[in-house]
Write a structure and sequence with these properties.
The protein has helices at about 40-45, 50-55, 80-90, 130-135, 145-150, 150-165, 225-230, 275-285, 290-295, 305-325, 330-340, 350-360, 405-415, 430-440, and strands at about 10, 65, 100-105, 105, 115, 125, 140-145, 170-175, 190-200, 200-205, 235-240, 245-250, 255-260, 265-270, 365-370, 375-380, 390-395, 400, 420, 445. By secondary structure, the chain is of the alpha+beta class. It folds into 3 domains: about 10-85 and about 110-270, Cupin (Jelly Rolls, Sandwich); about 275-340, no CATH class; about 350-445, Outer Surface Protein A, domain 3, CATH 3.90.930.40. Strands 1-2-12-9-14-8-7-3-4 form a 9-stranded mixed β-sheet. Strands 11-10-13 form a 3-stranded antiparallel β-sheet. Strands 19-15-20 form a 3-stranded antiparallel β-sheet. The two termini are about 50 Å apart. The model is unreliable at about 1-35 (pLDDT under 50).
Amino acid sequence: MDRDDRRVAAAGQPGRRPPGTGAGDDGRQRRPGTGRPVPAALGRCVAVEPGKFAAAYWGRAPLLSRAVDLPNPDGFTDLLAPADADDLLSRRGLRTPFLRVARDGQVLPADRYTGGGGAGAEIGDQVLDERVLALYADGATLVLQGLHRTWPPLVDFARELSLTLGQPLQVNAYLTPPGNQGFATHYDTHDVFVLQVDGHKHWRIHEPVLPDPLERQPWGGRADEVAAVADGPPALDVVLAPGDALYLPRGWLHSAQARDEASLHLTVGVRALTRYTMVEALLDLAAEDRRLRAGLPFGIDVADPDQVEPELTETVEALRDWLLRVDPAAVAERLRARAWPAARPAPIRPLAQAAAIARVDPDTRLAPRAGLRWQLRPDPATGASAPERVSLVLFDRRISFPARCAPALRAVLSGGVIRVGDLPALDDDTDRVVLARRLLREAVAVPA
């Protein structure tokens, strides 16, 4: 992509949305205690319409969105405020790898800030708040990792954003002392949304030395190129204020330094599914082709290009012939098996769910587990022509049901709330209650 195509956009000017100018009443979920609707996850991150973001910026160019142009009157403090970070660091029994500490561009060994958890804990890697305090006061940056799994507001936010983007993602928080910088100029192998929560941070963005890097192509292998480009003029030089957001495609060089106050920002890392991901799936499937499994000739010198050339020609021909016959459904299954486990559905409450199972009756209301990805297929054991059973394919397993349950399964999983007594295509309420209990036990549905 040309430099002109990799344009950098800045939407709006620095500042916060004036109080009381939240979004209108549009039927969305209301923010507790305010009566204001909770904006859609992507809409909180970018100040352009989703279609424009997808066409003009996604994977192509950075996008700076100022707080005044985003529907977040309170910024991002509802997702993780400084006091919440302090709570995580002191009262939640945090362990590695959920905390990382960096200073002068280097990640510090975990034993610098972890130790025994005290009587009854029987662990040796619990975060010790007094050690964290000493390192932070000495200029170290604290990185709270995996918050999409440990902090409830970010669990919900990450799930919604992941479903919108169709990509697995992770959320980290960076707490940087005044005037300090955690990491030198580098690039990530995943797209990121930077959400400035508190304080101000100075970002310098440079164009990629390797556009669209894969996870196997980290910046360390191109450190000299990165350093050379970082010495030149930046494509974007900006200070993020509370409530501002910045989108960076993978590969774009960046560094960030806190100003005269402590800084807290969230980084949402989007683990890109690429065409190379599809190539890897194809190569896995190619092992089914006997020509491609054939051994090289006896006595071949693999260091001799003249001996390798005819084998390479034969291999390319066999691969081309196989690719012309590949089943898209088989590729899709490989991609599903890779992508779905990387993004968990909404949490459930095991104790409350177990108690609800015993109380199911025809008047019980069920709802699908939020964020649960599923497919309903003929059970492979019975065949597709006249299946006696169906398989419910989830992110972590397959569940077999009698085929007559398929309409009821679709009714529950297709969204909304449904009364158990209204489940279709089953003979009586006894069958409906049995199915409802099974769906609750398997964490497929939740009580509504």
